[in-house]
Write a structure and sequence with these properties.
Blueprint (H helix, E strand, L loop, with lengths): L13 H24 L7 H17 L23 E3 L8 E3 L2 H15 L9 E7 L2 E8 L2 E7 L5 E3 L2 H5 L16 E9 L2 H10 L10 H9 L4 H5 L4 E10 L7 H10 L9 E3 L2 H13 L8 E8 L2 H7 L1 E2 L2 E2 L2 E5 L3 E14 L4 E13 L2 E7 L3 H5 L19 E6 L6 E6 L23 E5 L6 E7 L6 H11 L12 H9 L6 H13 L12 H12 L3 E3 H7 L7 H11 L2 H10 L6 H7 L6 H11 L2 H11 L3 E3 L14 E5 L7 H10 L3 E2 L9 E4 L5 H8 L3 E3 L1 H7 L3
Parallel strand pairs: 2-13, 21-22, 23-24, 23-25, 25-26
Antiparallel strand pairs: 1-6, 3-9, 3-10, 4-5, 4-7, 7-8, 10-13, 11-12, 14-15, 14-17, 15-16, 15-20, 17-18, 19-20
Length: 713
């Protein structure tokens, strides 16, 4: 794991960002399990949401680093096997988060940029409390409740209809008569403070106590016996909708008014605002009432009120562009730094972790904290600036710990006056604690800047790196081999059975010749061994983007792998093109860095991987076992499907982002600059060098009206 939480996202280097995303993906996945499946969270909802926000902020700044197991690609949790599944006709998506007034200002500014609207145009935005409960969807047909389901993973939830029928303020039959034939009303199931206290008092003899009202609500709603749910005094606020057979309102506020008319409870604190200042005023007003509301909230949700504008804004990643959750701030506590341990990650990074005297922060007991790197311990920031006024951290120090949503909290200050007289500055190791190889701080060849992260040079001989690379290769969004998880990767590596990816696919053949068969090993049997071999065989053909991601190329996350897949369509074509791009004056280099979303950093990482002879040998061995499936050609009657399009100049009817999103939906490839492979240039007023180059290359050029006519808009 990597621990860089104290460094602001805009101060992270590419390497630091990659390490941080690696840690975040693992920690969020673990806490998803505790939070949703076990109903036994180790952190609060507010902390968990802030953790996911940091992950997304890093991905937005470094899109080339997006991982296949990124939490931004997941919403909610995997539905429990205890309940039947319910596929949502309209996905139940999560919200992006804001943590400051600047974030809110950026949110509104992004909306204006995307829609191409100036500051003189009013954009009404609603503000409402963010209820800290469990999301649910209620499907009504002809006004009657038919199905109730949890959010689940956003696509598929758990059917808990009978449990939701027990929630007293959920109508079984919609009031009035102006409801559409089909409507899915969505909102939050929660438990009031007084009901939570009464429940914990009632079950105290059982030895179990719920940690907070949110988890009490979640545990109550997901009971197999609806009679138990009925005893738990759950409540419901309606604030959104899914499938609807016909529009019944033109704005968010009007739709909420319809919910109220139909018999739902809606939050009385919801208000309509016309400016960022108004939004912040409502936020402060709601936060001031937080302690007396009688139920938990963890922020304020802002939504563009005009539903037509919501439709234009659409979605980015897993979040709607037209909504954001402004979260409440973090909490702090003081404790003792008892030790500093060094961990080695998949990329060879040596990461220090503080071992703390256990302390309760925000209702959760913590005993570990991030220390990021050697500079951070010494009191030096990412750009050489002093942090904590230059005060270093030492074993035995009294420190201030903050939980801002991170699973492993951060140390934000140290009390020098309480420092033991025998304390000594921490000496960061220069040798890898796992394999003994030299651990060095790399120098950026272009900037001359020394990396804050110290890395093991052991490469493939370092067990810490080799095992983590195997874990990555078989992870869920890479090869996703059922039955081959972290535990198996570690055991097979240490037993010498699998030391590199190609070994996975020869395991069965070698097992047949072995005196000690897999089925005879502890924890295995004939059935489990057979199932593993079948799962391995099932991955001998794999989607190209998964295969690229599985290789663990530095800076190549799931998003970047998809960009490469869409552009090159075939693995061998990618391999040949990248090798040809080793000449930065070549067309291949220009073509690579011109891919929208691929920059020089990713290009250099691809060169380093594909031009390394050892990797070539390993790839050849792997490709004898695995066949990456080429990307299917885009089909359909779109006139721009499969074409490479470049937008330049000012667009008057759509923003640049909106035009790009439209082109990609139609199957086009959007490039950032003009090259010989460009098929079409869309030029608005003020077009300059790109237009000139397109003319020189005799590339088809049209204006905005021509583009709209071409795509039939």
């Amino acid at each position: 794991m990597t621990h860089l939480e104290a460094i602001a996202v805009d101060a992270l280097t590419l390497e630091q960002a990659a390490l941080e995303l690696e840690r975040l993906a693992a920690d969020i996945a673990r806490h998803d399990q505790h939070y949703h499946q076990d109903d036994a969270p180790q952190i609060s909802d507010a902390d968990f949401d802030t953790l996911k926000r940091r992950n997304l902020d890093i991905e937005m700044r470094f899109p080339e680093l997006v991982r296949s197991d990124s939490p931004s690609g997941r919403v909610g949790y995997t539905p429990s096997e205890k309940f039947s599944k319910h596929s949502h006709s309209v996905p139940m998506l999560s919200l992006d988060n804001a943590s400051s007034q600047d974030d809110v200002s950026d949110f509104v500014a992004r909306i204006r940029r995307f829609l191409g609207l100036g500051t003189d145009v009013s954009i009404p935005i609603s503000a409402e409390p963010k209820i800290d409960g469990l999301s649910a969807s209620l499907r009504y047909e002809d006004g009657r409740l038919i199905v109730g389901a949890t959010r689940g993973d956003g696509q598929v939830g758990e059917t808990v209809t009978e449990n939701l029928r027990t929630v007293r303020n959920i109508p079984q039959q919609l009031a009035g008569s102006d409801w559409p034939e089909i409507v899915e009303v969505r909102g939050e199931v929660y438990m009031a403070h007084e009901d939570f206290s009464a429940l914990n008092a009632r079950i105290s003899d059982s030895g179990r106590q719920f940690a907070n009202p949110r988890n009490a609500a979640a545990g109550s709603l997901r009971q197999l016996d609806a009679r138990i749910t009925a005893e738990r005094s759950l409540k419901f606020f309606a604030y959104a909708w899914g499938e609807i057979s016909e529009p019944v309102a033109e704005s968010q506020m009007a739709m909420i008014g319809k919910f109220s008319d139909w018999g739902f409870a809606v939050n009385p604190l919801m208000q309509l605002c016309d400016s960022v200042e108004d939004l912040i005023e409502v936020y402060n007003h709601i936060e001031a009432q937080r302690a007396v509301l009688g139920y938990d909230i963890d922020g304020v949700v802002y939504k563009v009120d005009d539903l037509a504008l919501q439709a234009r804004l659409g979605f980015a990643s897993r979040f709607p562009r037209w909504a954001i959750a402004h979260k409440f701030p973090a909490e702090q506590a003081t404790t003792i730094l008892q030790d500093i341990e060094i961990q080695v990650g998949r990329t060879g990074a040596l990461t220090p972790v503080a071992k703390l005297h256990p302390v309760t922060v925000g209702g959760v007991v913590v005993s570990n904290a991030t220390l990021h790197n050697g500079d951070y311990i010494a009191g030096i920031g990412a750009n050489g600036e002093p942090i904590r006024d230059g005060r270093d951290l030492r074993i035995g120090d009294q420190v201030t710990v903050q939980r801002a949503g991170d699973v492993i909290p951060q140390i934000v200050d140290v009390d020098i006056s309480a420092r033991p007289e025998t304390s000594e500055p921490f000496q960061f190791p220069t040798l890898c604690p796992v394999c003994g190889s030299h651990a060095v701080r790399e120098v950026n060849a272009k900037t001359g800047k020394i990396d804050a992260v110290r890395r093991c040079t052991g490469g493939l001989i370092c067990p810490a790196q080799a095992v983590e690379k195997l874990k990555h290769f078989v992870s869920r969004n890479a090869l996703d081999i059922d039955g081959f998880g972290d535990k198996q990767a570690e055991a097979f590596y240490h037993d010498g059975l699998v030391t590199r990816p190609a070994d996975i696919f020869t395991l069965q053949a070698r097992d047949r010749r072995s005196l000690k068969r897999l089925k005879d090993r502890e924890g295995w049997g004939a059935t489990s061994a057979r199932n593993l071999f079948e799962a391995i065989d099932a991955r001998r053909a794999v989607d190209l983007n998964r295969f690229i991601f599985a290789l663990g190329i530095r800076h190549v996350g799931e998003g970047t792998a998809k960009l490469l897949t869409r552009h090159y369509e075939d693995f061998e074509a990618l391999r040949i093109a990248v090798k040809a791009a080793s000449d930065e004056n070549s067309d291949a280099w220009t073509d690579l860095v011109n891919i929208d979303g691929i920059g020089e950093t990713v290009a250099q990482a691809l060169l380093a991987f594909f031009c390394e002879p050892h990797n070539d040998e390993a790839l050849d061995d792997l490709l004898q076992q695995v066949t990456p499936a080429p990307m299917e050609k885009t089909t359909g009657d779109s006139p721009v499907a499969g074409k490479t399009v470049v937008f330049t100049g000012a667009l008057e009817k759509f923003s640049r982002d909106e035009a790009k999103a439209m082109a990609e939906r139609l199957g086009a490839k959007v490039a950032g600059s003009v090259s010989k492979k460009t098929d079409l240039l869309v030029a608005g007023p003020g077009a300059g060098s790109k237009l000139k180059k397109a003319r020189e290359l005799e590339i088809d050029t049209i204006d905005e009206d021509g583009w709209l006519a071409l795509i039939g808009k």
